[in-house]
Amino acid sequence: MRNRLGRINYRQIHLQLLPYYFLAPVFVIMLMFATYPILNVFYYSVQQYSPLTVASNGFVGIQNYVKLFAEDAVFSQSLLVSLKWVLVVVGLQFVLGLIFALVLNTAFKGRGFVRAVTFAPWALSGVMIAILWSLIFNQNIGVLNDLLIRMGLMEQPIAWLANPSTVFGAVATAELWGGVPFFAIALLAQLQSIPSDLYESCDIDGGGSISKFRFITLPFLKDTIVLTTLLRAVWEFNSVDLILVLTGGGPMNMTSTLSIYLANVAIKTSNFGYGSAIGVITFIILLIFSLIYLKLSKFAEEN
Amino acid sequence: MANARTKRMIVRTIVLYFPLTAILLYILFPIYWSLITAFKPDSDIISRPVSYFPPAFTFNNFIVAWNNVGFSNYFVNSMIVSASVLVGCVVFAILVAYPLTRFQFKGRKVVFIILLCTQFLPMAMMIIPLFMIFKSLHLIDSLASVIFATIAFKLPFVAILMVGFMSKIPVEIEEAAMMDGCNRMQSLFRIIVPILLPGIVAAGSFAFIYAWKEYLYTLMFINSPAKLTISVGLGAMMSEYSISYGLLAAGCIIAIVPPILLFSYIQRFLVQGMASGAIKG
């Protein structure tokens, strides 16, 4: 930092600090609205804290966690519902997304338009998707009951979203609709990067469509499949809007994922200490997940 | 020959046209159903058998939803929030993308990893501490709380997207400008930003759509009915004791229009953004 005459070169220091000047405002924002709140969740999780019962607020140690794991049946149920939700929804979205991508990768007239239509649900929020599907599942005015009765598959209309045996499937179907575009877009992008001469040489070797898919398409898609599935699993684990609007987690907590349970505790009971303990558990689960993701994506090495 | 052609036709129908029709029906039907429900008079909505094409059209649901239910108000609030988030995200994303694409510096990798990791943050976990912060800032029940929280939450995605756009602009252009006596700031705003404009519009559209979709923060931070955004307004309608399905459908269609219009513009960037890891589902 000193020049030939031994003087400190302020201009040189200034130049080296330049990137940090640019990042500073964002750093402050993230510190205020991301880092600090996360630390706060850990702090509140060892407190009894509710804005409604100020008198009894205070430090309670690990009591919230003990209560969660030892006494709270809804919590353990929510863990299971979360697992089921992520597995079912991500699995179905992936399979359907792959079919969409394979079909959209074929050449046909009007492909651009069909592609745009297929991707459109991406632009809609969980609330909008919930309303679109509530108009289909509704017991009285819903179109699903009407179709099934007309086809002779059913005699009495079903309240799809209130019936414990159908609610999970119904909510998952709505979420599926909203999530398929993500997989379709990602897989299609990867499909288009496969060199076409690979398929041609497979043709020459007399390989059929199935061996083409098995030996060329799948190996090329492998990395994308792993990463998109992991990312999607995280988002589905965190997803709140659609379930909250369609069922609120009910009936009988059948659709109460961990995120829904946390949102309900925060919004309905204002039990912030207890809710924060659930938040910490959520955070730890996601931390493990994101470490696996980072490791698999090799993101850190590329940059 | 003719036989082979027929066989190819049959195969193409089975592997292409049949699944294609199924896909289009699956994607379009829910939107179509909401659309015709919105245009049906109430008597038609509840009448049996269900009519798949409305015998009578009415604009009444849209007029009532807009004027009487409060959707005009929700719409304006959503516009204020989404436009503010757009501006905030774009400005901050440029400030992040510029050093990441133009300088080698200590901590560059860390910034990247932090940007990527925010994708994993559970929103549900954030509502309690953010509520406490905004309460101490006296911003509860003010749209500013939703705007700040959404900018912080969506900025990383927009920033990753912006890095992708900015890295395509050659450094030489700037070097030439600086040779001619431009300083850093001048070169950023006079040289980079104008070239970056299409990318800025795309990244801004993403920010706008993300903000338009936002639900949980508004639900937690806003109490006054007059300050609700369109998502929360719709959600509140769903939980009412007696729902008018025509009004609900009309409200939903009103809410869908802006993001779908923007989407038709940015859908070509979707694949690109997906590749850089910036697209949230």
Walk me through this protein's architecture:
The complex is a heterodimer of chains A (303) and B (281). Chain A is mainly α and 303 residues long. Chain A is 72% helix and 1% strand. Chain B has 281 residues and is mainly alpha-helical. Chain B folds into 2 domains: 2-46; 70-275, MetI-like fold. Chain B is built from 12 helices and no strands. In chain B, helix 5 crosses helix 7 and helix 7 (143-166) crosses helix 9. The model of chain B has no long low-confidence stretch (mean pLDDT 88). At the A-B interface, helix 1, helix 3, helix 4, helix 5 and helix 6 of A face helix 1, helix 4, helix 5, helix 6 and helix 7 of B.
Number of helices of chain A: 13
Describe the global form of chain B. Answer: globular
How many domains in all of chain B?
A: 2
Helical stretch count of chain B? 12
Q: How many extended strands of chain B?
A: 0
Level of helix content of chain A? over 70%
What's the helix-strand series of chain B? Answer: HHHHHHHHHHHH
Radius of gyration of chain A: 26 Å
Strand count, sense and barrel status of the largest sheet of chain A are:
2 strands, antiparallel
Beta-strand proportion of chain B: under 5%
Give the strand tally of chain A. Answer: 2
CATH third-level topology of the domain at 74-269 in chain A? MetI-like fold
Oligomer: heterodimer
Q: How much of the sequence of chain A is in beta strands?
A: under 5%
Provide mean pLDDT of chain B, rounded: 88
CATH superfamily heading of the largest domain in chain B: MetI-like
Order of helices and strands of chain A: HEEHHHHHHHHHHHH
Sheet with most strands: strand arrangement of chain A? 1-2
Distance between the termini of chain B: 47 Å
Topology:
The complex is a heterodimer of chains A (303) and B (281).
Chain A: H1 10-45, E1 47-48, E2 58-59, H2 63-70, H3 73-104, H4 111-119, H5 126-137, H6 143-150, H7 167-191, H8 196-204, H9 209-238, H10 241-246, H11 258-269, H12 272-297, H13 299-302
Antiparallel strand pairs in A: 1-2
Chain B: H1 2-39, H2 42-46, H3 60-69, H4 71-102, H5 108-117, H6 123-136, H7 143-166, H8 171-179, H9 184-213, H10 216-221, H11 230-238, H12 245-275
